Amino acid sequence: MLKIIIISLIYIFSFSNLSAEIVNKIEIVGNKRVSAETVKIYGDLKINKNYSDKDLNLILENLYSTNFFEDIRAEVSNGVLKINLTEYPIINQLIILGEPSNKYREEIKKVIKSKEKDSFIKSNISSDIETIKSLYSSLGFNFTNVKSKIKKTNKNRLDLVFEIEKGEVTRITKISFIGDKKIKDKRLRDIIASEEYKFWKFISRNTKFNQNLLNLDIRLLTNYYKSMGYYDVNISSNSAEIKKSGNVELIYSIDSGKRYSISKIITNADQVFDKNIFYSLNKNYKKIIGTYYSPFKVKKLLEEIDELIENNNLQFVEHNVEEIIEGDSITIKFNIFEGQRVLVERINILGNNITNESVIRGELLIDEGDPFTDLGLEKSISKIKSRNIFKNVSSKVIDGSSPDLKTIEIEVVEQPTGEISAGAGIGTSGGSFAFTVKENNWLGEGKRVSFDMAVDAESIAGTVNYTDPNYDLLGNELNYYVSSKSNDKPDRGFENSIISAGISTAFEQYRDIYTNLGISAAYDDLRTDNTASASLKKQSGDFTELTASYGFRYDKRNRAFMPTNGSIISFQQSLPLYADKSFIDNSFSVSSYKTLNENVIGAGKFIVSAINGLNDEDVRISKRKTLSSSRLRGFEKGKVGPVDGLDHVGGNYSAAVNLEASMPNLLPDSTNTDIAFFLDFGNVWGVDYDDTIDDSNKWRSSTGVAASWISPLGPMTFILSTNISKASTDETEGFNFNLGTTF
Predict the structure, then answer these.
(1) What would the DSSP string read from start to end of 8-70?
(2) Among 150, 165, 180, where does a domain finish?
(3) Please, are residues 26 and 40 in contact by the beta-carbon 8 Å criterion?
(4) Is residue 7 in some structural domain?
(5) Is 700:682 a contact under the CB 8 Å cutoff?
């Protein structure tokens, strides 16, 4: 037995000597561009260290990761660590042929892996070609051909050339919906992002076919149907039919399936947790049980669970959802359990060639050193995606340096983030035009910069906005703006030019409660018409003011776009910090929505607004209150309320109540028309600058029908109304129409 032990020890000692050796000298050969000292740093090469085969493999791994070297050999012999290197050649110039636009040439250089003055890695070329094709596909060029060529300038340098044949733009000429839709085509067209091409739509990207847009449409349709309770909806066979012209007809085949209601909600918490922690959820469950299923309702309940977990300082907690179908109802089961006790060792961000790493890390809900949960990672990825500056975001979890540690790798795929949009409208109130240029990832910092211009019959306005969506990594939005607006309002007896600038922030204070704060400075050059009354002419002049504002919004709508249930309540107040004519401005509004049945969606809205001068000051004409045509239908825009001579001057107060019943299924699907019946009440009253003018404190009312039609030129709205009550000075409008389109 003793002999066996001695032989074993001799074998182990001999094997250790064979597989490891003390290094007392380092030799680096073949490096021309990269210094020996740099190689030592990247490879973590040290003398007087015992190097095993594992250590040599780690050296190779470290040096290959630099992308400096095409071939690396490492060996230890007689105490000398020899590193033999073959360097990659350098890309001297990156040349893009076939693309006349410098903007897109620069965009290509940003998104591909190959870079000027970097190493030429042959394996990156095929990836770069696919990236270029993908970029052009997103612009509607779906048959782009890309070739690469290499021009050697010397032994270690070369020019990399990409030759591009874009081909023709593939346009969407027709969009069709077939199958058991249950929802009218008009509404479905509102939901998807794709648009049919018209000759005037020369700016819109959404008329150009690309696979990403198609996938987005499917996602939007699926989410919408599920939010309506169609849990089993299947967009089973969308197809892009290529016509002889090279354009595309999109066909979406929809099987909506059954409409499910929520019959029961269960909390299945692990025994390690105090079940009383989650008892308060039952109150929210009762509000949802009996209503139609919606993933957004489930999401809100999960947010409630997350809040309870956070408030009770529970760590390593995971949860998932089981949705059990029984007939035409669904039982929702929340499983809450203790996950693995694992910490995040490191988070690596990959693929961000343009976007600063801090932008991505600022959206993460987990950080290095935090408890690792799949839930935290999933929510972090969702937040990054919601920034809409990446084409794709994916994650991978790998083992850390010990069993209780994990490393997270998050890879993003960049995409173009600039936008140009334009729209125009014409109607009984006159014409309008709007134009916007926007960059959603300014200088790779995740900031938004935009320029907006709007023109109508009475005004022209331009605004530059700079928005930081995640200021100082606090999750709060910070917006700066500069604006100029000129108004010519002959029916109200004045014209003015306003230059203003401001800063504001908005954030979610509590669940569904949003706060906004702002401060702004404005200069108002106000001039009254020659026909204005003497008291009105006294208001002419130049006015400067510095104003602070704040507001709250409580939003319980089932969705912001075309809500069918829920309500939203808001309050806003502006106060002067300095003003030539001081004032206080208040507004309060409530909107409530209710689906009465599949054919009727009810809505009730109320708004009241007031502006009053301080220190016995009068409110100038340009700040007085009016009601928009959408708040009081059946009356001409701005021609309700107090009258000074021939001018409708607005009031110190305005209020409106709107009751509406929308009937989306009243007319056949082929008409592309929705019908709604309405009953409106409104009042504009109060004159503080002249006691001799009637304050016109009288409730006006009207009723009628509104039709919304998707015409070949764009969406058109028609309003037929009759007045129930009015003031003698009001000017009525029995018919109103508006045509709008985008370019």
Answers:
(1) HHHHHHHHHHHHEEEE-EEEEES-SSS-HHHHHHHHT--SSEEEEHHHHHHHHHHHHTTT-EE
(2) 165
(3) yes
(4) no
(5) yes
Domain count for the chain = 6
pLDDT at position 14: 38
Question: 236-245: per-residue pLDDT in tens?
Answer: 765 666 665 6
- Measure the CA–CA gap between 72 and 60, rounded to whole angstroms: 7
Within a domain: residue 3? no
DSSP codes joined into one string, 326-356: ETTEEEEEEEEEE----EEEEEEEES-SSS-
Q: Which residues does 269 contact at the CB level (< 8 Å), separation at least 6?
A: 275, 277, 278, 336, 337
Tell me which amino acid residue 393 is: V
73 plus 214 within the same structural domain: no
Regions of the chain short of the pLDDT cut 70: 1-20, 237-245, 741-743
pLDDT at 47: 87
Residue 193 domain flag:
yes
Looking at 338, 371, 402, the residue that finishes a domain is: 338
What is the CATH number for 194?
3.10.20.310
Which stretches of 621-732 are assigned E, i.e. beta strand? 643-644, 647-648, 653-663, 673-685, 700-711, 714-725
Do 444 and 382 lie in one domain? The reply is no
371 and 237 co-located in one domain: no
Q: What is the pLDDT of residue 391?
A: 84
Q: What burial letters (b/e) apply to 239-275, b meaning 16+ CB within 10 Å?
A: eeeeeeeebbbbbbbbbbeebbebbebebebeeebee
Q: Output phi, psi for 453, to 5 deg.
A: -130, 135
Structure tokens at 448: 């938004």
Structure tokens at 540: 């002419």
**Helix/strand/coil (H/E/C) assignment for every residue in 432-454:** EEEEEEEEEEECCCCEEEEEEEE
Cβ neighbour number for residue 287 with a 10 Å cutoff: 9
Distance CA 124, CA 118 (A): 12
Asked if residue 140 and residue 118 are part of one domain, the reply reads: yes
Q: Is residue 71 part of a domain?
A: yes
Give the Cα separation of 398 and 408 in Å (integer): 6
Partners of 661 in beta bridges: 602, 677
Q: Are 612 and 619 in contact (CB under 8 A)?
A: yes
- Assess whether 97 and 49 both reside in one domain: no
Domain ranges, residue 568? 418-742
